[in-house]
Structures are given as C-alpha cells and as structure tokens.
C-alpha cells in the first residue's frame, strides 16, 4: 500500500470519528435542531399560499430550495471555516509535520463536511414532508435525481470552500464573507422563483452553484407541474449537470495548488503571528 493511500485511509477513519463525535455532542445536536427550525419556520410562515401557475404552495417550493442552499452553504462556508480555524490553532501545522499528513487531514475534512451537509439536509426534509403538502411524493424515478445532484453539488462546492479557507487570514474573515453569500442566496431562487427577478439578476444567479443545486433538488422532490415556476418551464437537468460539473472541475484543478501553497507557507512563526494578531484584536 502506498503511503498516500495509507494516509487517505487514515483520513477516512478520522472523518468517521469526527462525525460520530458531532452526532454524540449535545452542543452539535442542538445546532442541527436549531438549523432545522430555522429552515422550517419560513416555510410555515409562507403557509399554503399558492405559487402562481405552479400547482404548489410557496412553502413546498421553498423546502427543496433551502435544502439545496444548505448543501452549498455547508460545502463552501463550513469547509472554509474549518480550514481557517485549524490554520490559526496549529492543527494544520501538526498535520504538515506527519508524512502525507495533509492528505489524510483533508480527506477527513471532506468526510466530515459531507456527512454534516447530508444530515443538515435530511433532518429538515424529514420534518418538512409531514408539514408541507406536495413534497417528496413522486416515486423512485424522481428520487434517483438525488443520486447525482447531491454528490455533484458537493463536488462543486467543497473545493471552493477549500480555496477560500486557504486564502483567508482568519476565521473572522470567513464570517465577513457571510454577507455576500447571503446576497447570493437571495438571487439564487431559494425563497422565490428566479423567474420573478430582473433578467440581469437571473443571469448572475445562474452563474453560481447555489441556484443549480436548488433546481436539481426541486426537480427531484416537487411534482411535475411545479416546473411551470422555473425558467423556460424546464428542469434543465443537462444544464444543471453541466454547470455543477464545470464548478467541480474548476475547483478540483484550483484547490490542490492553492492548498499546497498554503501548506508550504505554514510554519510556527506564521502561526505565532496570527495568534498575536488575534490577541491584539481581543485586547
């Protein structure tokens, strides 16, 4: 067995251990429950108000859309936050000191973030299908769409999060990026159909993976008539696969050199400088 493959297997075990820890920690479980509530409340507030021409309620439209937002948001921002935090506290420096330690560390993070994203989606879906009519009743054929949309969505967003986490100076910088990300959510057809926005905003929204993950999940979880609310009255599966695939390829090409550059620059002196700056801000 090659050293790299051995490190990757160690990363898989580490990711599984971290997932077990998060699912048995009270604070983390509370976070999952709170996120579920935060997603369900807007749907309940929207109620049974019908979506024009789509044959579904606004709440039914929002459920799969927000699940897509959760997947993209977790893939990008959670990955970035973890990398930035572990650069600051020295975890990455310790991983760098072990042969192929960065490989194992990053594989573990991929497992951890992917598992977190899936659980963060599954809980609101399990609750939402009982509270919102017209969702997840299309049979096995439609559900098969999830088999390719969810993994492709993760591939499109995880590398982006890794790049962001490698470039920012601290976890606080990642927090500041939440503002533009929330703006992106607004123009990505999460809370209302993208077809209701001006054309130039529709164009911007379709450039990013958030919209396409949401569209793919709506095609899997909503009845066929709901396509009337979409641009061109089509689920656009080929375009969904194409855009998410393009983001995945671009991210997988860009992330490795950026991560290697970050690893080369990691040192005890660099970590000490970051801690000193953090203490200055606190002081």
Biggest sheet character: none
N/C terminus separation: 50 Å
The shape, in one word, is elongated
Structural class: mainly alpha
Along the chain, the helix and strand elements come as HHHHHHHHHHHHH
> What percentage of the residues does DSSP assign to strands (E)?
under 5%
Number of strands: 0
Return the average pLDDT rounded to an integer: 85
Number of helices: 13
Please mark out the parts with pLDDT under 50 across 5 or more consecutive residues, or reply none: none
Gyration radius, in Å: 20 Å
Helix content: over 70%
Describe this structure in words.
The protein has 283 residues and is mostly helical. The protein is 76% helix and 0% strand. It has helices at residues 3-23, 26-46, 58-88, 91-96, 101-131, 140-143, 145-167, 171-176, 178-186, 199-205, 209-221, 237-265, 268-282. Helix 2 (26-46) runs antiparallel to helix 3 (58-88) and helix 3 (58-88) packs across helix 11 (209-221).
Key features of this structure:
283 residues; mainly alpha; 13 helices; 76% helix; elongated
Secondary structure layout plus pairing:
Elements: H1 3-23, H2 26-46, H3 58-88, H4 91-96, H5 101-131, H6 140-143, H7 145-167, H8 171-176, H9 178-186, H10 199-205, H11 209-221, H12 237-265, H13 268-282
Helix pairs in contact: 1-5, 2-3, 2-5, 3-5, 3-7, 3-11, 7-11, 7-12, 11-12
